[in-house]
Design brief:
94 residues, alpha+beta, 5 strands
């Protein structure tokens, strides 16, 4: 677990072994990763209810592919900002 994951653990909602962040906290997480030069590998969106944690393929993005071009952090921020406010996000980083 890296420094940012440890710092943000208290802001996460833990579901089924996943640490999920609100849109606001996910944006902060990405910005801190950029400051610390921690590589983002992907972001997965989830719809949360009292009884379920439903992944959303429409709101997931993979940065680990060699086909990905551009600044990962800017792309991640744009992706999160365009996502619905009721989603929670798992952020995968190195």
């Amino acid at each position: 677990m890296n420094k940012i994951e440890q710092l943000f653990m208290v802001k996460a909602l833990e579901r089924g072994g996943l640490f999920l962040y609100s849109k606001e906290n996910a944006l902060e997480f990405v910005k801190e990763c950029e400051k610390e030069k921690i590589q983002l590998l992907g972001i997965d969106g989830f719809f949360i209810t009292d009884k379920s944690t439903q992944p959303s393929m429409d709101y997931s993005i993979d940065f680990s592919s060699s086909l990905f071009e551009g600044t990962v952090y800017n792309k991640a921020i744009d992706f999160l900002e365009a996502s619905p406010n009721n989603l929670f996000f798992e952020i995968v980083c190195e």
